[in-house]
Fold these 4 entries.
Entry 1:
Amino acid sequence: MKRVVTLLIIGFFSFSVRAQIIEFDALAIASDSVIDTARLSGSVSLSFDVNKQDELVYYIKTGGNLAYEKKKHFWVLTANNQATLEGDDQVLNTGSSNFRYLWNFRSKLFPEALVQYQWDVTRGLRERYLAGGNLQSTFINKKSHQFSVSLGAFYENEFWGWAAVPDDRKPTENPAPVSVNFVKANLLLKYAYILKNKSTFSLRLFVQARPDSYIKYPRIAPNATINFRLVKNLFISTSFSGIYDFRPIVPIDKFYYQWENALIYSF
């Protein structure tokens, strides 16, 4: 049994605390042994900040994950939510829940199935449902670094509002929400480097789009994460993630990014 406990700290910059299994897939692929007995791991996190302006503004972040591994099977469930409240009103709400199943994931080529539910009021995304699968190939699998490529397809339903769209881009004063359904191709490039002290650095590039317009109008999402190991079980993590959508469903800015920082204690 493994538990991950997320510590909250106050320092000279603000930490965004996220529950996570640190590079769980990269580290798992690097192992040659197969676990005969079941292993369960999980984590929870909570971050709470208060900012006094004209009104009190509360920032609440919660998250958690649960992973189950047995022999060649690996199941992972993750969920997170960030809410910003001003007075009695909830201003922003962003989060996701994701379930993944990996089979024979220590081999060079293995399948993955996933379902996801997502919401991001910051960008106007009220709901997003996704289900699909990938075939992942591990081209480099060393103790210190791994490089893999995943290729697959998924079906998604997105429901967009206009709250994040500037008034001069709206077709009418109160445009109706937009609902779309697409089948998309998906490409993921992933590189992870593990230092001798177990600190990790990873780069990921997601590319997804409809097959009939893959070259012209993809949705590209880069991600870079560094986990510094401070002591035996204590890590400090910082990550950059962005989205560049060549043809947004509603006319929001094409590029969106965020920085996240975390302090993680695992045992």
Entry 2:
Amino acid sequence: MDNQYVVGWGTLALINAALAQGKNRTGLNWFLLSLVLGPAATFILLFVEKREYKQVRENQ
């Protein structure tokens, strides 16, 4: 039973990392945070807005 718990927690951390990258956030940071917070990190990611990148013009 304990092994299934660890596998589920790790899977959730990977899902959260992918979700974070979809919102233009650092996947590694959210993976590590999800290992600590677990499902709470998922709820935080659900309500965080997508980060928009500002385009930088190159002078030519």
Entry 3:
Amino acid sequence: MPVSAMQIWSCVTLQVCSHRSITGFMQDNPFPQPKPVTDVWRPELTRLAPLTPARRAFRAFCHRLVKFVVWLLLDVNTEGMENFPADGPALIVINHLGDSDVPALFSALPSPADALAKIELYDLPLLGRLMDWYGLIWLHRGRPDKRALRAALDGLAEGRVIAIAPEGRYSVTGALEEGSGGAAFLAYKSGAPIVPISLAGTENERVYGHIKRFRRAPVQIKVGNMFRLEEQADGRREAMNEGTRRIMQALADLLPEKYHGAYSTSE
């Protein structure tokens, strides 16, 4: 079935969301739902995977496979790749709409990247182990995961490119939700440049609907200008809040207005 195929090739996705209609969901749940919290804490699984020759080869294979499957199922239009750095370190921040976000993103990148992924994906039969072999940084949600943040900082210190979704889950509204502070923390602590990359058209209902009709779903990817967060003198909390706001606003600036959500500037 096409849905199963999509679930397989989205093995490096950062979050999980319901496959129900966004419209139906909002009718049943008119208010924003609380952010998910990881039930089982397994810090022993969180680490920065070393880039051994075997892992590099596996990542290269996954990168080529994802490019092919994305080409098969999605019609991706990418703008602004000239803004993407030639090498790391770099922190990619994305908005998060559905299963196809990360496959579409990774297919557009010139080489394999690292990413933070929710620990629950580790329990998927076979796919969880494949994700682990790839070297995803497992993240426990709902409270600060110091091991995951340290692993990401170590990766940036090594010059890696790391992707993170500041919203912390798929958007339940179809538009930007409030960002969490993890991305800003990594940017402040590492000094790495931030690369905002927006995705539009990757909502599950839309993508799966096209696949069921044997059509490629149009997806738009925009790469924004890199920027850095400078330390603020008015306190750590204020700096984190302002850094998160800048990150999310950079994503909003790349997206059509209907996706702006919590970062809309319209009256």
Entry 4:
Amino acid sequence: STYDGMSIARALIEYVHQKGHGAKTLFATHYHELNDLENRFPRVHNWHISVKEEGHDVIFLRKLERGGVAHSFGIHVARMAGMPREVIESAEKTLRELERREKNADAISKVTADDGSVQLSFFQLDDPTLGSVKEQLEDADLNNMTPLQAFDLLRKLKAEVGADKD
């Protein structure tokens, strides 16, 4: 999975930083989520190849610049490599869905109580039932539901997680 690869990359960067013998190391990855390691480890420095974006086109400028980037260009590279249009469109659709889910999961996991304590998200658990509940909650249009429809949805979700004792 993506998380497996990112976890291995992060662990390897930490290992080289902590156990390395001072040799300069070039570590190339497409995991932009690892940009924060520059703030955690004094000898880690982010660099990237600059790009120019024009609509759906990306031009790699072959210029090395300081800092990380906010996203990868995998789909753009696939397009440049001549992947079929259907594959590119499907990948873009999947990417939008994954980004939407990640954004929703981030919002849920950042909920805090009045006392400042952090409310952990149970949606991060690797449980298919909770994943299904999460999907149904994300798809629910609460602003256009009647109170009865909202109650029925809640009852259904409660039964799905086995919490219905009625």
